[in-house]
Amino acid sequence: MAYLTLHKKKLQDNFDFLKKMFDEHDVSWGIVSKLLCGNRMLLKELIDLGVHEIHDSRISNLAKIKEIDPNVQTVYIKPASKRNIGKLVKYADVSLNSELTTIRWISEEAQKQGKTHKIIIMVETGDLREGVMGDHLVEFYAQIFELPNIEVIGLGTNLNCLNGVMPSTDKLIQLSLYKQIIELKFNKQIPWVSAGTSVTIPLMLHQQLPKGVNHFRVGETLFFGVDLFEEKLIEGMHGDVFELFAEIIEMQEKPLLPSGILAANPQGETAEIDESLYGRTSYRAILDIGLLDVDPKYLIPEDGEFEILGASSDMLILNLGDNPKKYKVGDTVKFGLKYMGALSILNSSYVDKVVN
């Protein structure tokens, strides 16, 4: 069976790297755990790093975090649905919000549960996902700042998640100015400008982060060590915290080209024929993982001497050429992963998860 390995030491190294950087800039931060898809074993590894704040987009995952360690501050990072308000208030200490109606529901539920629920108001800064338009922010805040059992602890924004709009110093300064305007107008303190995600880290690395930004929500860079501006590994971090291992379940020398009448496969793809390849053969390996688990485009073959030819629902097909590494049935093949590949595999119940 295919399995995914989390390398504990490399994860710790990445965490220590980020913690040192944020401490030097006097910036608070939490870890976004949604990549782990609620896996209790992996969530415990995360908490054991010394994490005090965890963010997730699934309330059920926040419930598991509270079961493991009730002292971890939990943050729900997408707009809440009405039917989940009760669970939200029960399991999330903080939530990101941009809908007045929803915040009123949260206020009512927090009163019932005898809790004060913390809010980060999300502000639209150009990527056009969630967020209150800046022109409406003061009016929006005026309608919620005195709601019972609600405490506004920050203004936040999300960039690069939908249309690929990148963070900039100007955009983040604007968010900081919104905070100052609200504080002056309403004589209220808003502790956080939560404008940082993994994609914002390069601004900090290059000393371009405005001083007003004092809170980050980090997932991808922790797990993959990546500079999302330049799509490269950050020096001093690991890009292989996660690795995928899949077993060879068939190995045959076969023609390079299919034979017969061609039609679309179940994925809607039709093979393209390169007539220069007629009569040539190569070794093909079938692995015990498929499209149900991961899209092959998110896999990074460790061995550059083979190529991924394609996949069906449960099998991945490799072209090994002359098979110079002498792979055989029963051997495992190792892959690195892109973020979306790891997300798919961690969400798959068909792939074992291992901590090393």
From TrEMBL:
The keyword Protein transport does not apply. InterPro entries: Ala_racemase (IPR000821), Ala_racemase_N (IPR001608), PLP-binding_barrel (IPR029066). Pfam families: Ala_racemase_N. Gene3D superfamilies: Alanine racemase. SUPFAM superfamilies: PLP-binding barrel. Keywords: Isomerase, Pyridoxal phosphate. GO terms for molecular function: alanine racemase activity; pyridoxal phosphate binding. Residues 8-224 form the Alanine racemase N-terminal domain. GO terms for cellular component: cytosol. It comes from the Bacteria. Its cofactor is pyridoxal 5'-phosphate. This is Alanine racemase N-terminal domain-containing protein. It comes from Cecembia lonarensis (strain CCUG 58316 / KCTC 22772 / LW9).
